[in-house]
Design a protein that fits this description.
Elements: H1 8-12, E1 17-22, E2 25-30, H2 42-56, E3 62-67, E4 71-76, E5 84-91, E6 96-100, E7 105-108, H3 112-122
Antiparallel strand pairs: 1-2, 3-4, 4-5, 5-6, 6-7
Helix pairs in contact: 2-3
Length: 128
């Protein structure tokens, strides 16, 4: 089967698309077509990661919002070259969740102080 053109929105990455295979044909379908919640603007996640970075400033860690293969908050302990954690932000029904690189839920946007403390502990910047 040859390459079939996808919509301009899918090619540009404006919408998250799912490719469906039905009886040998391929079609692109937006998440919005299925009445699913549309993807949020990356700026919302960036804002929440920035607020979390602000909370982390109370600890002796470096925290920087980075865009590599995806948007995340990279937190590292300057006292240890190996104590680095990438935290992602995901939209949930009522708030935003912060997830460690290994999939553990660290907290949400309603509990920034507690979430920052957990991350500081995770990278060895606090003992408690």
């Amino acid at each position: 089967m040859g390459n079939l053109p996808l919509s301009d929105n899918c090619q540009q990455g404006i919408e998250e698309c799912a490719v469906l295979v039905t009886k040998g044909s391929v079609m692109a379908q937006s998440r919005q077509v299925n009445d699913q919640e549309p993807t949020q603007a990356p700026s919302e996640e960036r804002d929440h990661l920035g607020r979390l970075a602000g909370e982390l400033s109370r600890y002796e860690v470096r925290a920087e919002v980075v865009e590599g293969s995806g948007l995340c908050l990279r937190v590292d302990n300057p006292e240890s070259a190996h104590a680095v954690e990438d935290v992602i932000c995901e939209r949930r029904e009522h708030d935003y969740a912060f997830i460690a690189s290994f999939g553990v839920h660290l907290g949400n946007s309603g509990s920034l102080s507690l979430t920052a403390h957990k991350i500081a502990w995770l990278v060895g910047a606090t003992k408690e």
